[in-house]
Amino acid sequence: MALLEFTEKGIYCPAADVYIDPWKPVERALITHGHADHSRWGHKHYLCTESAKPVIRYRLGDVQIQTVSFGEKLSHNGVNFSFHPAGHILGSAQIRVEHEGEIWVVSGDYKLEDDGLSEPFEPVKCHTFITESTFGLPVYRWEGQSVVFDEINAWWRKNKAERKVSLITAYALGKAQRLMLGLDESIGPIFTHGAIENTNQVMRRQGVRLPKARKVSAKFKKEEYIGGMVIAPPSALSAPWLRKFKPLSVGIASGWMALRGARRRRAVDRGFVLSDHADWNGLNEAITATGAQRVIVTHGYTNIFTRWLREERGLDAYEAQTEFEGELSEMGEAGAEE
Questions:
Q1: N or C: which end of the chain has fewer CB within 10 A?
Q2: Rounded mean pLDDT, 20-31
């Protein structure tokens, strides 16, 4: 019997009778982070990190949540569990599972670059590593975020000089707050869509320092938005409210913008390559750092990345099907995340 198994409900640990990020209701769920494809409603008991709890509570309501500190060890039925920073969003964790000398790590979603908001990624030694592969192709190689933010701020300044409103789309949880921290507030005011501002308020209450932003509202006159930056979820691009910001320049901040033609297909003015997932180099670096000889690859380019790990790196690699989405909704392929 494997320490962890992939079942119709999710990643299951038989020895402890618990699931990790299950996609169907279960008795006990260990949650890597608060995004909707990993943290779902309907479980009886939830376990997550202390910093992930507020937004999970906000999203799921009155559910039973227990928290754990990063690195703290918990034991259940003789199986030891601990949560370690994944660097994906605030509170995101990799989950280490140890039983009878065998160690597995479930990565959840992760990135290696320290974004100044999430707890920085921490490699964890293990025998088997379950990794995402959202951007598991060599074409996906990120510039440092400071370079990307320079591009975004330059675009904003240009739009302001032309008396336009700048609007950029991003996940309401994680990417939006990361964008806010990278914006040059001296350029102009920042406005946020309601779904994003609600999440901002949750984070502010837990002590996260975010730049001042004004929630988009009908009370603002059209002229007040001129020269400003509006941050909205991807669904906003098809919403009638977009008309209130014209003249308007629209941008998308997503790893998918590394693909030629992605910006054109989304009919936007600018694409900025900014992802909360590891790029090709980051995936390979993370796997090396674990020391794992067996790697199980989930959501993303699973077949191609698995073959690379097996044939080029000599690892015992397999692919596994899950219901995790990675960054699909940023391209509108799976609906808006909020």
A1: N
A2: 98
Among candidate residues 199, 201, 150, 209, the one with its CA nearest the CA of residue 175: 199
96 within 8 A of 126, measured Cβ to Cβ = yes
Q: How far is CA 48 from CA 28, 38, 95, 157, in A?
A: 11, 11, 10, 40
pLDDT tier at 316 (50, 70, 90 boundaries)? Answer: very high
Count of Cβ atoms closer than 10 Å to residue 58 Cβ: 16
Please report the pLDDT score of residue 265 as a whole number: 64
SS3 assignment, position 176: helix
The answer on 163 and 205 residing in a single domain is yes
Angle at 137 between CA 127 and CA 235, to 5 degrees: 105
- Read off the pLDDT of residues 90-147 as tens digits, 9 standing for 90 and up: 999 999 999 999 999 999 999 999 999 999 999 999 999 999 999 999 999 999 999 9
pTM for this structure? Answer: 0.94
pLDDT of residue 332: 43
pLDDT at 336: 32
- CATH code of the domain covering residue 9: 3.60.15.10
Q: What pairs with residue 65 in β-bridges?
A: 46
Instruction: Name which of 109, 73, 75 is nearest 83 in CA terms.
Output: 73
CA–CA distances in Å: residue 146 to residues 96, 100, 164, 179, 187: 31, 44, 24, 11, 17
The total of structural domains in the chain comes to 2
Identify the CA nearest to 155 among candidates 168, 143, 145: 168
Same domain, 163 and 127: no
The amino acid at residue 21 is D
Are 116 and 181 contacting, i.e. CB atoms less than 8 angstroms apart? yes
Range of the domain at 305: 5-140+276-331
